[in-house]
Design brief:
This protein is an alpha/beta fold and about 425 residues long. It is built from 12 helices and 16 strands. The protein has an 8-stranded parallel β-sheet with strand order 7-6-5-4-3-2-1-8. The protein has a 6-stranded antiparallel β-sheet with strand order 9-10-11-16-13-14, with helices on one face. Strands 12-15 form a two-stranded antiparallel sheet. β10 and β11 form a beta hairpin. The termini are far apart.
């Protein structure tokens, strides 16, 4: 009987370890939130930098290839996407990272042990692609893995951190998404810092996006390692997945801030699995949570509705607010907590407030000042960020609105009297 090659045995073992890890990450069960949080906002991290490498003072914005294209990528798609970000005006709104996900590389390293782009799909090489993107004042992102293989079984960077980081820098890469597959069972806290150190030792400033799926609670340790860290497993283009991931990410609200952000995964807006109202809620809550805004659809062929959502400057401004405090769920009501108020502080003593209806029918949702941490005598003006109009002035005590099923209304409360947030 022929013996099984050692390489194959190691590969099978790595696959077993990885799949076991992905099947059973903690916190998959959705915790039912308390009816309110007092005080709703943890201010202990205000003004504190996370990873201080000069990047991510606000959450990253851009585009990533995975959600729409998966492995079906090539250099033409990346160039055309960069062109589309410019021609649509999305780049002017802050979407400046063009990020290539898995499947860009050859199936094996070269004879010198280095990574190489797939010659069939990226024949011009990554440096030429980076030059093309940079000419448009955009930035190029690339993908690797803190394991022996990537999730699509291309070479990973575990134990190759220094060589790969230097290679990425030489190509002009601006962003690294670092995944968690085929990790040999080594703890993430041991596998992710070496790439941070390797990136920092290059001559180039590279955004470091940790993608370990929230398995080992990265919010607790990744603030000094990466510029963002995934808090959840992969999102899918469905209402069930998107709402569950929002709840999981909310758990870690107090750990995000300038320099390092909780990452509930890329946007699914425009990919067809949700309704317009559901996508609008998706974008609103991601913005409020100070999540990375990485477009996941084909921006070369967007519908008008998709563009309307992704280009809402007032909602983007919430995400990019310099105060950098992640908003969170502050009260719930209705059946199974489907009637929700989310809120967060903004610069200028303002609050962003979202009334999110996750029920199956229209409901009236009311935000109470005590739930928002406001003094009962505080008066505010209320601006609707989707209608782009100021609705009322000098409101105090409570504010409510009818919200359609699966819709989300988003407002900014600006003080018209002294505003005090608990």
């Amino acid at each position: 009987m022929a013996s099984i090659p050692l390489f194959l045995l190691l590969s099978l073992y790595a696959l077993y370890i990885t799949m076991a890890t992905r099947i059973s990450p903690p916190f998959l069960a959705i915790e039912r939130p308390a009816s309110s949080f007092r005080p709703p906002f943890d201010t202990s991290n205000y003004g504190k930098l996370q990873l201080n490498n000069g990047l991510a003072l606000t959450p990253q914005m851009g585009w990533n290839s995975w959600n729409f294209f998966g492995c079906n990528i090539n250099e033409e798609v990346i160039r055309e996407t960069a062109d589309a970000l410019i021609s649509t005006g999305l780049a002017d709104l802050g979407y400046n990272y063009v990020n290539i996900d898995d499947c860009w590389s050859s199936l094996t390293r070269n004879q010198k042990g280095g990574l190489e782009p797939d010659p069939e799909t990226f024949p011009s090489g990554i440096k030429a692609l980076a030059d093309y993107v940079h000419e448009k004042s955009l930035k190029l992102g690339i993908y690797s893995d803190a394991g022996v293989f990537t999730c699509q079984v291309r070479p990973g960077s575990l134990y190759h951190e220094n060589d790969d980081a230097e290679l990425f820098a030489s190509w002009g890469v601006d962003y690294l998404k670092y995944d968690n597959c085929f990790n040999l069972g080594i703890k993430p806290e041991e596998r992710y810092p070496p790439m941070r150190d390797a990136l920092n030792s290059t001559w180039r400033t590279i955004f470091y996006s940790i993608c370990e799926w929230g398995v080992d609670d990265p919010a607790l340790w990744a603030g000094k390692v990466g510029n963002s860290w995934r808090t959840t497993d992969d999102i899918t283009d469905s209402w069930k997945s998107m709402t569950a991931i929002a709840d999981l990410n909310d758990k870690w609200a107090s750990y995000a801030g300038p320099g390092g952000w909780n990452d509930p995964d890329m946007l699914e807006v425009g990919n067809g699995g949700m309704t317009y109202l559901e996508y609008r809620g998706h974008f609103s809550i991601w913005a409020l949570m100070k999540s990375p805004l990485l477009i996941g659809c084909d921006v070369r062929n967007m519908t008008a509705e998709t563009f309307e959502i992704l280009s809402n400057e007032e909602v983007i401004a919430v995400n990019q607010d310099p105060l950098g405090v992640q908003g969170r769920k502050v009260s719930v009501g209705g059946k199974n907590g489907c009637s929700q108020v989310w809120a967060g502080p903004l610069s200028g003593n303002r609050l962003v407030v979202a009334l999110w209806n996750r029920c199956s029918e229209a409901v009236t949702i009311t935000a109470k000042w005590e739930t928002l941490g406001l003094d009962s005598t505080t008066t505010v003006s209320i601006r609707d960020l989707w209608k782009h109009e100021t609705l009322q002035e000098n409101v105090s005590g409570t504010y409510g609105a009818q919200v359609d099923a699966h819709d989300c209304k988003m407002f900014i409360f600006s003080p018209t009297s002294s505003l005090s947030v608990s």
